Amino acid sequence: MPDLPGLHAGDPARRIPPASVARLTIYLRALNSLIADGTERVSSEELADAAGVNSPILRKDLSHLGSYGTRGVGYDAQFLTRQISSALGLTLDWRVAIIGVGNLGRALAGYPGFVSRGFGIVALVDADQLVVDTEVGYLRVSAVDELEAVLERTRTNIAVLCVPTSVAQEMCDRLVDAGISSILSFAPVVLQVPDHVQVRKVDMSTELQILAYHAQRAQEPDLGPISRAQ
């Protein structure tokens, strides 16, 4: 999977490192929660605590956006939210097509958090004739044979793949050929794409395996390195 590219903020020459981009999404979620609770200004320590990072890292991350904080006063929460949203591209029009309308695809299509964060679900596509032409929410499911036409008609610029491993690469290739350069894949397979295409993979089984490892470690007695090696 290609690395998440840095983002530009303000000055076109300024580029935000990938690790900072990932943390900006966490800061934005924390800010939205604080604002919902009535917070108007927030210190770097308060925001770092809400986001689960240390304040020096947070200040360094926010420095990529410019200096918006005031010493002793903190950050204007609403303004900082707008700045992070702009840097992440969330003020643009993101039109999402979900490819594969099984249980996962339907759940994603019905998730209200996408719209509130600037992502509109504009198309649903599936290969199952029993699913095609049914409705999920306000959208009709289109046939996979119509994929390219649907993407063009809806002006889709992000695609979500919820398809079996056996067809994931084929569907990915069709998306790329249709001009889609941002793909979120739930298929447990590494997709091959050109350098200009960004693929983010969500592998829930891998995440569960990592959790299982940590849960196992937490339950083991601390036997020390020598005992563990025996």
Explain what you see.
By secondary structure, this protein is of the alpha/beta class. The protein has 2 domains: 7-87, Winged helix-like DNA-binding domain superfamily/Winged helix DNA-binding domain (Arc Repressor Mutant, subunit A), CATH 1.10.10.10; 94-206, NAD(P)-binding Rossmann-like Domain (Rossmann fold), CATH 3.40.50. Helices cover 44% and strands 20% of the residues. The chain has helices at 18-36, 44-51, 55-63, 77-87, 103-109, 113-116, 147-154, 165-177, 204-219, 224-229, and strands at 7-9, 11-16, 41-42, 75-76, 94-99, 119-126, 135-136, 139-143, 158-161, 182-185, 198-201. It has a 7-stranded mixed beta sheet, with helices on both faces. The chain has a two-stranded antiparallel ribbon with strand order 1-2. Helix 1 (18-36) packs across helix 2 and helix 1 packs antiparallel against helix 4. The radius of gyration is 21 Å and the shape is globular. Residues 1-13 and 226-230 have low confidence and may be disordered.
For the termini, the CA-CA separation is: 38 Å
Fraction of helical residues:
40-55%
Task: Note the run of SSEs as H and E.
Answer: EEHEHHEHEHHEEEHEHEEHH
Derived from helix and strand composition plus strand pairing, the structural class reads: alpha/beta
Biggest β-sheet, characterized? Answer: 7 strands, mixed
User: Number of folding domains?
Assistant: 2
Strand percentage lies at 15-25%
> What strand order characterises the main sheet?
7-8-6-5-9-10-11
Summarize the structure.
With 230 residues, the chain is of the alpha/beta class.
